[in-house]
Amino acid sequence: MIPNLLRRLYGLYALTLAVLVLLLIGAPLALLMPGLRQRRWVGRNAVHVWLWCVGTPLRVKGQERLPAEPCVVVSNHASYLDGPLLMAGLPWRFTFVVQHGAANWPLAGRVIKAMGVRFVERESKRAGAAQLRTLIRRLGQGESLAVFPEGTFKADPALLKFHGGAFLMAAHAGVPVVPAVIRGSRRFLGDGQILPNPSRLEVELFEPVHVSGTDRASVALACRLARETILRHCGEVDGTHANAMEYPSPP
């Protein structure tokens, strides 16, 4: 009884501080910043400040494994908090790629647009292919991307099938893929949760995977290698019986 009460009190405290630090202070301040680098700096540090205040500071490991050149970071997806956590764990130069529906979220949609997030359409193959071509050009121009290749998350603690778009982009742009693992976020704010739970939060980056070619087999191999790394280190089970990849339309 008492532990449940304490968890509920912690959740109310953490949620209250999230509204204060992230929504009432961080979001308006980010929107007021004149440049993309400054807006992302505000966003990253607002997340760090909030987590520190609620007693769950974010630990980031393996940043030295990030290449100096452009790359694509791919991460597991387990909670509503994964985007802010990965943003806080990566340098400001990373642009996040998310599904187009997020652009319409109240307030949050406006903020992530200001953060330079790129949106992709998964329901229309023609629109998706055009967006992939745009992202490949941006990688070629020196931009780095961050992607959640599962595309979604569920309540069950399992790594889902990967979409292949991130790996296809990396192949055509000739850049490496860096696997990343987020730990503790499912317990902290998983599917269906309103109040956060106390949890240790970590982001860890692993050795880059290089895509050997733009053919289907090479892209699928890079996807499998990155997924195996993430599965080995995320602490969750395989959500598929095979390391299947949903292959997107060629750019």
UniProtKB/TrEMBL annotation:
Quote one Gene Ontology molecular function term: acyltransferase activity
Organism listed in the record: Banduia mediterranea
Listed A to Z, the keywords are: Acyltransferase, Lipid biosynthesis, Lipid metabolism, Membrane, Transferase, Transmembrane, Transmembrane helix
Question: Do the record's keywords include Disulfide bond?
Answer: no
Q: In which pathway does it act?
A: Lipid metabolism
Query: Protein name, please?
Result: Lysophospholipid acyltransferase family protein
What's a Pfam family this protein contains? Answer: Acyltransferase
Q: What is the lineage of its organism?
A: Bacteria, Pseudomonadati, Pseudomonadota, Gammaproteobacteria, Nevskiales
Where the record annotates domain Phospholipid/glycerol acyltransferase, the positions are 71-185
Tell me where the transmembrane regions lie.
Answer: 12-32
